[in-house]
Design goal:
Elements: H1 17-22, E1 28-33, H2 38-50, E2 55-59, H3 68-74, H4 77-80, E3 82-86, H5 89-98, E4 101-106, E5 113-114, E6 125-131, H6 139-144, E7 147-150, H7 162-176
Parallel strand pairs: 1-2, 1-6, 2-3, 4-6, 4-7, 5-7
Helix pairs in contact: 2-3, 2-7
Length: 177
């Protein structure tokens, strides 16, 4: 049996919200396309904080801080990760292209790239679009994206909760950038 102990919170070396904001940018932003659940939005903030994502764009009909439900899942990450509400995801995608981002829809499409073989290019800025809990990423947003990225799955279900998808995708990007 391994002789191991869990680290105490004070041993984890966590940074403050101000220190977090002063860290170097990752070059990655997250776009939430009509994510209705405040708990999913809170989880998105928490994952973005964990992987030092530069900003979250909350688009369309999407819960926004301050919100007790977001805070319950985010555990304060809504204070460390910069965010912006944008009414129209399509207009945001156009703006992000103008700002030099490669826009990636996380979606199952005819030509989607599989995450297990995709490697992000260092020095490239990425905007990762995550879609609605029922309908996924809006087709018009998919059409304007540079490409789609799909998480390979092996069970009977062909979808993951959006917050789970975010954790998988964001970890992958941070691993290679």
């Amino acid at each position: 049996m391994a002789n191991d102990r869990k680290l105490l919170n004070i041993e984890l070396g966590r940074v403050s919200a101000q220190e977090y904001k002063a860290l170097p940018e990752s070059g990655v932003v997250a776009v939430l396309d009509n994510i209705r659940s405040a708990h999913n939005v809170g989880s998105a903030f928490r994952s973005c904080d964990a992987f030092k994502i530069d900003r979250i764009f909350l688009c369309g009909i999407c819960a926004v801080p301050p919100s007790a439900e977001i805070h319950k899942s985010a555990l304060g990450a809504e204070d460390s990760v910069d965010w912006e509400h944008v009414d129209d995801t399509v207009a945001l995608v156009d703006r992000l292209h103008e700002e030099g981002y490669t826009v990636v829809s996380v979606e199952q499409t005819v030509n989607s790239k599989k995450l297990d073989v995709f490697r992000p290019e260092p020095g490239t800025k990425y905007a990762l679009v995550f879609g609605n809990e029922v309908d996924g990423v809006n087709q018009e947003v998919v059409d304007r994206s540079d490409f789609s990225l799909e998480i390979p799955q092996f069970g009977t279900k062909h979808s993951l909760n959006v917050s789970v998808s975010m954790g998988v995708i964001l970890w992958h990007f941070r691993l290679f950038l």
